[in-house]
Design goal:
By secondary structure, the protein is α/β, with parallel strands linked by helices. The chain has six helices and nine strands. Helix content is 31%, strand content 25%.
């Protein structure tokens, strides 16, 4: 894998992806942060050697390089999911490539469903911890020890300093930001009422189909990472309504300006 990562990195360097400070992974319906970035280079995933290709219609599939608040950033416009038929190695490959290119911090966003009934759609949650329900690990491959510690400590997977800064920014800007536990499931089907009850019992505050593999690999690489969920629907099993994916995207877009504020203000401090 190391040879593949190096080949991908060399290609991106030749396209101007040099000396990045921060990597950003954008979730469903969360692309407007690009309007705040001075974009210098962009490459479609299908042109990048060894890169997976985004197959979800609302995930664009571009790697973007530019400056934001005086920092060089690499932005993934569109991420990869297990439910697209990818492996955990594929899903997390871009994190390893961004690290190889030199990022020092990683910011992750996603759209998720609110399990905690005191959370409302359109609000946001800072991910403080997670539960991996995807049935595998992105570190379970031969030779992983050549790329980092096999038995990665996950007692505090989300960087405390970055998370504390995000909370301070939210308070100062009067942004309603919850904090909680994100459960990552395989998908692509949404959950049953019984599954929502189960998720609540095991301590999840929100549920989605991404993020956790990327966080595990960031920890494998000793890369400080913070993550914010935009809550796009309410998953109360006793009052469950059918979910329309277009409504989820619309709700993500509605909450997005607040997420952009959190990320841009955080990047100023890094």
């Amino acid at each position: 894998m190391k040879a593949y990562i190096e080949e991908t990195s060399e290609y991106l360097k030749s396209k101007g992806f040099t000396a990045p400070d921060v990597g950003i992974i954008l979730g469903t319906g969360l692309s407007k942060i690009l309007e705040h970035i001075d974009i210098q280079h962009e490459v479609s995933y299908n042109h990048i050697p060894n890169f997976p290709t985004a197959t979800v219609e609302f995930h664009k599939g571009k790697l973007i390089y530019g400056t934001l608040e005086g920092k060089n950033v690499i932005v993934m416009q569109g991420r990869f999911h297990l439910y697209e038929g990818y492996t955990l190695t594929d899903v997390t490959y871009p994190v390893r490539v961004m690290h190889e290119l030199g990022i020092k911090h990683l910011l992750v966003s996603n759209a998720s469903g609110a399990i905690n009934t005191s959370f409302k759609k359109g609000e946001m949650m800072l991910i403080d911890d997670h539960i991996n329900l995807q049935g595998g690990s992105p570190l379970a491959f031969k030779g992983v020890e050549k790329m980092g510690e096999r038995f990665v400590d996950m007692s505090a997977p989300y960087d405390k300093a970055m998370s504390a800064t995000i909370e301070k920014i939210a308070a100062s800007k009067d942004i309603n930001l919850h904090k909680g536990v994100y459960a990552s499931v395989f998908g692509p089907q949404l959950e049953t009422r019984a599954e929502y009850r189960y998720l609540k019992i095991i301590g999840a505050d929100a549920v989605g189909m991404s993020t956790v593999p990327e966080i595990i690999v960031a920890n494998h690489l000793n890369l400080p990472v913070a993550a914010v969920s935009v809550l796009t629907d309410e998953c109360d099993p006793d009052n469950l309504k059918p979910v329309d994916i277009s409504e989820i995207i619309a709700m993500a877009e509605k909450a997005e300006p607040h997420m952009i504020t959190l990320f841009t203000e955080l990047i100023k401090t890094l």
